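Database export, one record per block. Field names are fixed; values are copied verbatim from the stored entry.
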Amino acid sequence: MKIEESDIVEANDYRVIIYPASRPFATVEAKKITEKLYDFLATWAAHGKPLSSSFKIEKNQFIVICVDEEKEMASGCSIDALGKIMREIDDEYQLGLFDRMKASFVENGEVKTLKLIDFKSKVRSGEISKDIDVFDFSKNTYLEFLGNFLLPFERSWASVIK
């Protein structure tokens, strides 16, 4: 189910898994991905026990899966099942969801994604201003996601680029 439609309370600190695409989703892709994830999460379970979970598509490019592990812990098998459905989505739409060697940022109000090596090179050369916001896909909890998913360059992981 989608986070907006779920019983997940945003004040609680749920486990988050972020799948960043290399490009924005086409409208039809977002619709099909939403349907596929809604169906999957409705039956997602760990050791036969349903997982209280939800998802959202953020900025039309990032899939954010959320699970309340206070109710039931996501096990290795359940995480594998999630990985399988995400690989199916990735294969079907060629989204680069498992490519972690990329950087996404907002420049002039637009989400952009580059290979990490190209991003670093363009920051160093000044082609990309440090007056941008940078996405951080390493967030593990929903509260971290809410407060620190998109940060000004100087407060982000990218600030170490010299």
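Remark 1: Helices lie at 27-43, 76-93, 116-125, 142-148.
Remark 2: The two ends are 42 Å apart (CA to CA).
End of record.
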